[in-house]
Amino acid sequence: MIYIQLFLAFFYPGILGYGGGPASIPLIEYEVVDKYGWMNTSEFSEVLALGNSLPGPIAIKMAGYIGYEVGGVLGAIVALFATVGPSLVAMLILLNILYRYRQSPKVKRLSSFVLPAVVVLLAELTFDFLITSYDTMGIIYTIILIVGAYIALEKLKIHPVFVVMMGLIIGGIFL
Amino acid sequence: MARQRDIFIAFFRSGMLGFGGGPSTIPLVQKEVVDTFQMMTDEEFADVLAIGNTLPGPIITKMAGYIGYRVGGWLGLINALIAAILPSVILMILFLATLKQFKDFDFVKGMSNGVIPIVAVMLGVLTWDFLKKSHKSLGWKVGGIILCVSIVGMLILKLHPGIIIAGLLLIALLLPIKKEERKE
Questions:
Q1: Which Pfam families does this UniProt record tie to the protein (chain A) (predicted)?
Q2: ipTM, 2 dp
């Protein structure tokens, strides 16, 4: 019974959470706090705050942790499956259809038609990250880190893994 | 088997370094999948990202699941998902189980702050690359029109990107093909 509840609690936010992880957080909160009462609001915000500072997508971390708290390891698996499964199945079906007809001129054209939209999407994300960076650490640190990261990634061609690790170390010590 | 190892490494690294939520993993996944392991081209990656955005749910698991499947079949799918998800879930459970009494995670918070500008740079570079690509494949006229429509729709009207992309997909599939295009 608890597993069915866990599945439903994360299934709805998974399919209704348009706009990725962060968009599904209020929906998860509704299910977990208001509907099933597994946590109160302050516990939920504590988990959310910690989750936000650890790597990986937030909806996944919330599902894994809350599932584990409520139903142990199996609970975590059920909650994770409910979060990931439905949208992944839709993704596989859609992309497999496109892949099957990839020689068709219409499908070929499709790939170039979506490129400008991807550009805008990425530009918006870039801007969001710049603003967040400015808000959390101010203009000077932001500029130093941006210039440093650009040189390391694009001029010195250092693998992003090492650049990100440098960022983690610098951030942990100075920020 | 080497393929499966590549899949695991690609998504493990992206998942572990994706501080700041789902979107920050996009440029990391692109670097691993396109540059490091050459599992697909930039254009294919853009398709996956675009389609992924028309569907609900976290973007990284949609990308990991599909790319894993494309490169390594069903085993690849499970492999990529586990690599992308498991480390951060385990970290989360460990942290909350052992460190519940510590109320502030200043060090960890500072760490994720340090990554944000780096992700901004990677996203900026990716934006520029895709802008050049869309100019190359569509030219200034068609490319410019779609770009303007996307800007107005996403940034000014604040429509969800999935709606714009779904619209573009429909136009591409339904609009008749011109004769010159067919010859190519």
A1: Chromate_transp (PF02417)
A2: 0.78
